[in-house]
């Protein structure tokens, strides 16, 4: 039986015939037999479409498992019901898809299936199953938008680091709670981007959206466009007006100003000026508000007759400028005007834009007359142009003034004045008198001189204006002007002209370009013609003309195509062809020559496939062009023209094989065009007989064909079996076969992979690597472990061992099941035990990535990896030693994260080594250690991670006491004039103090009050207070904080709750300590005490809690040092948030003490740093 071939000439006609055949098959009720993949695509597709129509699930599933991606794609596209209809949930669920379909589907087919399910699934519960089944967070994230709102909210924080904005928007569409979570949990500088994407939520609830973004105290707010600003001003105008300083740079100012009433304008501007005068960082957004370009929108809201008077009083008259601000009464009109004057830095003459022309002309010309060299002269004249507002009398008066007073001015100024005038007025409305005056300006600039003696360079605007004016007034354009004209389409003038005037200008420009077209004699003429044709097309487009009406142009294009083809010139016509898509139909016959590529060939299939035969020479060039891909075209030919065009193309490709070049395009074409059987015959014909190439005897043509078959056979549909590529994947041919080898084995189903893995693992090293990669990607963990272990034992090759270690490590890092993690760790442990000191460096680098190891095996891994790296460091070359020391140190430092699981002996050993070599052995180091991390943090974690007081006491005696006693013995030792031991010991104390919040409470550990108290007693007993006041005081405050925290901590409070509850008691104790120190020592001790207290208050993140503590220092009005301490400790926070601290500082300001008032005013004066 002859294979089915569709009727019709064009692609559309063949589609129509196909639809007719499908309709007949469906209406006949013909049963669809079990699916078998045939060579005829149309027959395969008909069966699939028929099965999809009757919902034959078994048939569809069998198509999914076939190797032809065309059939799989068609089945997926036509069986959306399989995903959306709940009755098929037994098939489209995570378990069935991954256990019953995935092992039998090619990789590409399965990826398509998963994507189709993800796009169309409606059942949130099933989507959640797919999410939970994914091992990688990035893959799981793709399912999240299809899950329920509660599920999304519970899992979103896992994906903060790799969430794309597009996905974020989809999640916000599902639940607006996501927006709130992101605005609360992400970095402040990212929040504006997220808020911008979530702007659509504004429509649902304006106040809620603003509530969320206003919680962020930073200045990073999203940009509200005109529509968003209008919506806010309709729903909640007051909150934006009251907090305008926060929204000033975010909202659309012109829209915002429209919603203010006329009587609100002045009070609003005064209020913002008062904020700007305050110099508070919160009002930083107002820095660009007080400019003409912004304020004009508000001033124009005032009545027309009040606008100029308002700006005149403030910015032009001297009364406000010269006023003594201290003598003005707050709240009066003059006081407010003065405040506004101070913050606006726009030159006074700019405000004349609100005046009528006569007034502006009189005042500005008077200003200019007093200083003819004024650098702002041209800017002032530009203001007068704006005031003239296209009134010809005013324009004439302005030009005449310039001619009378500034004729001898610098030519650049004259050019600037002239071009500004032409750009900002309507020259088509000029009368003869106006044009005569402006001609005088042209003469000054020597525009009409025949020689190119113009004193300015850029005269384009002037020449264009002359041409347009002359044309619309039926005057000739002089040859001199035309010569200076650099072609532009002048479309900006067309918007202002009537139809008759437009046609005059267009016709001139068209003829100007047509006259530039010359006979094409040489290749330079061809290039010039193409350039001119591009300008003509640009002209036609900008003046809304149709190319079909200008046959002279289309004929010239066709002439260029023919000349280029005849002379084999290289000049491209692509720009001409692609200039306007709707004009391409006029160049259909020449399209292949003008745009040689797949796109025009596909277009030919839609409209007239015979074009490919008529333009056979150009098509043949395409077929031989290695740089052009024709896969989509060849796929269409193979499916819809299997007996005609496709056969012709295959024959042409076969003929090309006999040539010595163009084999890449030829082989790629054959792989895409041939069905399975003839392709396998081609591969069989050219497969190499020997693995090694005999370069002296090989036929270069045959070798070229073999190379490109090896490289490109994977693009065939369906792909050849692995046996075919394995013929090439050996010896000298392996380098050519790698692309196909990787692609074919990557695409194999799991069941198919199992048949070929052993062949790859038994191959040379270069192929064996890819076999290991295939094992990793395709097989289950137990099988992978067995194969990897066998390969590891059998191979001494460092590359093979490195890739095995890498993939096993990745498996362990990605494992979520604790039992599987233990099993994989045991394999990794065997590998580490078997490692030498001469492995691939990638293994050693990989071992430092401990953060990714599952927690239940991380401690064991850390000990094993640390011990190996420590031994390695002693054996490697000098140039590698520092890097491996760094990795070893990272491993040791990470033990803090899993300190509860770490062997005690291991921790004490690394602590002791650190103490000996760095803490006390600083002679070989740069100086002190740092409290932010390193082994100092491990010491702190080890001491604090006790389960009982007895255990903590034991750790204290074993670890801390020896450090402390040894430190006291060396307390007076210096290096470069610094007490390094004291500094190191302070770092340790600081870390212990900080870890109250960051470690003890966070991990719900035992509060170390007794240990801290013991440390305090030892410090006070062993070091002098005069030399170590700061250390002693800070630690005394830490002990007090720890003691007070015991009761709320035992009740399960978090750190914020604990510090909130104990704030008053802690503040009282801190005050008592200060009183005691002042009494014992001297009043100025409050300065040092304040620094110590501030250091400990860093443990408290909530400002309101700090304020509660600061208030305790104000409890005793007779204790001056208490007030001064409150000022010292809170002044920095007050400068950043005056609103929150206003009550506290108001109370301070009311104290009658002169000393307190001096400190108060000094710290509230924002300019004191410049005095």
UniProtKB/TrEMBL annotation:
Protein name (Swiss-Prot/TrEMBL): Uncharacterized protein
Domain of life: Eukaryota
